[in-house]
Design brief:
heterodimer; A: five-stranded mixed beta sheet; 8 helices; B: Rossmann fold; 2 domains; 18 strands; rod-shaped
Chain lengths: ~210, ~400
């Protein structure tokens, strides 16, 4: 089913298709404004080709709205906010991380998020992004010994990553040519992912 | 006490029913979402495998374990099974990918491995050393992971192939995305084409509808009873064929010219030429999936001969002698101008249902023919109502 809804800002459309949508249905729309030239190319048969004078000047525009795959309320709000912007957030963090280590570094990625399925999605997105950038990436997640983990959980959040990083390097869980990209939320209420890189025992937060 | 117990029981049952209904609605919603997602997810897999046919991750045929397919958070395992089957079917049909799936149940099973460093519980593909030591590895050296996630109106596929060695190095990674606004290309698995090629086929299909159509119509026109006349006009059955042209592929505006023929034994023989201009009301372009509604105006001229045309004579009411007159040499003839307004409900430019009103200006002040509808401001009388079924070729 094609879920595109097109609103022609000019006089092309006789009926506003959004007029038949309830407020709840409208909240589930993701909309973007396109030039009518681009809209005609992207939605052939639905948006008519613009007149020649508009091809030259490009004055018309079209609002293209798509229904979200999962409606509001289907997933917990924080998960939905993170997952809806997953590509954008992870790409920014992975690009920043990639600039902090030599190209020959082998990258490991782990995500720290209350929901395990969402954490896996975050980690997979970061691994795939780094691998596509040409970095050496491993699917293996470095793990500390059980005694180290038992100690780390007693520390305040601000110290955990720094000490875990140092411990990973000392115990050779991470070698000198290996780096760990950690992605996490720091405050339980936030929907912004943060990142840090553990390289040669030193933990650095990503800007 | 008993009342309180009864109230408590009733409220508990009602609450349980409400919870049950909510659960059913959620399940229905998820089933609906999954039915939409599956086409887009299959589309992404099509594109992934097509990419492998053009640039394979391997130089020679290589055994690969389909280690995991994960679907968007909150969707179920039924979708995973469907996608596993789809990717497996595509790879089998496209040997140019050099990917050969290998059956390895132990790879996705939980494995417990005890060694000098301790006991590790993990999935098989996360600990290939343990699989090798246990002798239950399939011999495959690579594992494929497919991860789908719904990001707003976009569905994103992240595919990666890792080596089944201690380093678990990712040797191939791709991210592909589609959106709810993009129709699935529904490519043929045995003959995968690129998105550009599939899109060209789609555009050709749209363009293949052509700017010109030949509509063949069968219809009936009925005329209102006159106020003074003792006889009524018989309904006219018409068969017509013509030519319809659209200004653009969108078919928002169309124009048609039709020639029609009507014959009723002992009554009349009539021909008519009519032109119409139509405007699409339901959107800016015709739909491939939904009926389209047009409004139209038209004009035409009708010529008829026979006793059935007596009623259209403008001078006087038909007499009994005229009605009973069987001489073909003296049959009444009428030539009438017609103005038409109407609506047409058309499905895929193939079949349509048309309803219209017609005014015959020459009979504007005559009482032989009555009026169905009058437009008050301009005192325009519509004396005829008709319906048609149209087939377009």
């Amino acid at each position: 089913m094609n879920r595109a809804l097109l609103l022609c800002a000019l006089s092309s459309c006789a009926i506003d298709t959004l007029a038949f949508k309830t407020k709840a249905e409208r909240r589930n729309l993701d909309c973007q404004r396109l030039s009518d030239v681009e809209a005609a190319a992207r939605y052939p048969g639905q948006v008519p080709p613009p007149p020649a004078k508009e091809l030259a000047g490009g004055v018309g525009d079209v609002l293209a709205c798509s229904t979200r795959y999962l409606e509001t309320g289907e997933r917990p709000n924080r998960d939905e906010a993170i997952l809806s912007s997953l590509s954008t957030q992870v790409t920014e963090l992975a690009d920043s991380a990639g600039a902090m280590a030599p190209q020959t570094t082998r990258w490991h990625v782990d995500a720290f998020y209350p929901s395990l399925p969402v954490a896996q999605k975050i980690a997979v997105a970061a691994r795939t992004t780094l691998a596509q950038r040409g970095f050496i990436v491993s699917d293996r997640v470095p793990t500390l010994a059980a005694g180290d983990v038992a100690f780390l959980v007693t520390l305040p959040q601000s110290e955990v990553y720094r000490i875990a990083c140092a411990r990973s390097f000392v115990t050779e869980v991470l070698g000198p040519d290996e780096a760990l990209l950690g992605l996490m939320i720091v405050d339980p209420k936030e929907t912004q992912l943060h990142g840090g890189v553990c390289l040669r025992g030193e933990w650095r937060w990503l800007p | 006490m008993r009342a309180a117990l009864l109230f408590s029981l009733v409220s508990t049952v009602a609450f349980a029913e409400e919870v049950d209904l909510n659960a059913k609605q959620v399940e229905l919603l998820r089933a609906e979402v999954a039915s939409d997602v599956q086409l887009q997810a299959a589309e992404l897999i099509d594109e992934l495998v097509y990419g492998w046919t053009k640039e394979s991750p391997f130089d020679v045929d290589t055994g690969v374990v389909l280690a995991g397919v994960s679907v968007p958070v909150s969707l179920g395992t039924g979708l995973e099974a469907y996608l596993e089957n789809h990717v497996a079917g595509l790879v089998v049909k496209n040997p140019k990918t050099h990917v050969q799936f290998v059956h390895c149940p132990a790879c996705s099973a939980w494995v417990v491995h005890s060694g000098a460093k301790g006991t590790v519980v993990t999935r098989g593909y996360d600990d290939p050393e343990a699989l090798a030591q246990a002798g239950i590895s399939s011999g495959a050296k690579h594992a494929l992971f497919l991860d789908f996630e719904a990001e707003g109106a976009s569905l994103v596929l992240r595919a990666r192939i890792t080596t089944l060695e201690p380093s678990l190095r990712i040797v191939s990674a791709r991210t592909l995305s589609t959106a709810t606004s993009t129709p699935a290309m529904l490519r043929d698995g045995a003959k995968l084409t690129s998105v550009a090629e599939a899109r060209k086929e789609y555009l050709d299909a749209l363009g293949g509808r052509g700017l010109f159509l030949v509509p063949v119509r069968v219809g009936i026109r009925n005329y209102a009873s006159g106020t003074q006349s003792t006889t009524n006009a018989t309904p006219f059955l018409w068969v017509s064929a013509g030519f319809e042209a659209a200004f653009t592929q969108a078919r928002a505006w169309t124009a048609s010219l039709n020639a029609a023929f009507s014959w009723l034994p002992q009554s009349h023989v009539a021909v008519m030429a009519q032109g119409r201009i139509s405007r699409l009301l339901t959107g800016s372009a015709t739909s491939l999936t939904w009926p389209d509604l047009y409004a139209f105006v038209g004009a035409g001229v009708l010529f008829g001969q026979g006793r059935g045309m007596l009623i259209f004579r403008t001078s006087q009411n038909p007499t009994i002698d005229e009605i009973l007159n069987t001489s073909t040499n003296n049959e009444p003839r009428s030539t009438l101008g017609i103005l038409t307004i109407g609506a047409e409900l058309r499905v895929k430019n193939r079949i349509s249902l048309i309803a219209f009103l017609e005014t015959l200006p020459a009979l504007e002040n005559e009482d032989n023919i009555g009026t169905y509808v009058t437009i008050p401001l301009i005192n325009l009388r519509f004396q005829s109502f008709g319906v048609e079924v149209s087939f377009c070729f």
